[in-house]
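[recover] target loaded
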């Protein structure tokens, strides 16, 4: 009897460990399935506002931004033939973000300003003016909402939400600073930059 009791303890412990391992694996599988189901479907064709201003536009690449494992948005870059990232401010292109969660428009503007400051583009006075313009234009977003920015060389940037015009910022320096957040080689998200530029040329 004593032998039986000593041998059954490890078996029960091993059984509980195996069950816990299976439960963890199942939970991870369900989480992965839910994440896949929640991911938005991205169009490979450029949005109409981009096609209207960028000749022979095509998708250069796309990538996902996550923050501490949370899916923030998916990004797509639409460019003309012969696009050169080193001269991005001199060329028309479109960058569209498809958000995966609710975010406040002012917070989007603040993060954009902070990224510009980190890159050292523009003076503090310029960034405050740009912050005011972005706060005025950028709406609050929910999961699935698309924000599109179009670079207009020598003019500035034009913004859309779900293909509806939000407005323009008529300042080429602003456009260069804003799109540098994703396209400058010093970006805080080099993996996303690489994905966006995968087929840029």
């Amino acid at each position: 009897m004593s032998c039986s009791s000593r041998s059954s303890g490890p078996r029960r412990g091993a059984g509980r460990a195996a069950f816990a391992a299976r439960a963890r694996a199942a939970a991870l599988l369900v989480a992965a399935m839910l994440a896949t189901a929640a991911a938005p479907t991205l169009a490979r064709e450029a949005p109409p506002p981009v096609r209207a201003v960028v000749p022979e536009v095509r998708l250069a690449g796309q990538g996902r931004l996550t923050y501490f494992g949370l899916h923030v948005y998916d990004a797509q870059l639409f460019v003309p033939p012969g696009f050169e990232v080193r001269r991005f401010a001199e060329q028309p292109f479109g960058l569209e973000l498809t958000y995966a969660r609710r975010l406040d428009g002012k917070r989007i503007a603040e993060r954009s300003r902070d990224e510009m400051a980190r890159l050292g583009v523009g003076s503090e006075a310029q960034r405050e003016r740009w912050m005011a313009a972005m706060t005025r234009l950028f709406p609050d977003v929910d999961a699935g909402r698309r924000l599109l920015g179009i670079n207009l060389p020598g003019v500035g940037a034009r913004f859309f939400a779900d293909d509806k015009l939000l407005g323009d910022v008529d300042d080429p320096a602003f456009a260069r600073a804003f799109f540098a957040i994703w396209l400058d080689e010093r970006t805080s998200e080099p993996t996303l930059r690489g994905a966006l530029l995968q087929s840029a040329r």
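[recover] notes: The two ends are 77 Å apart (CA to CA).
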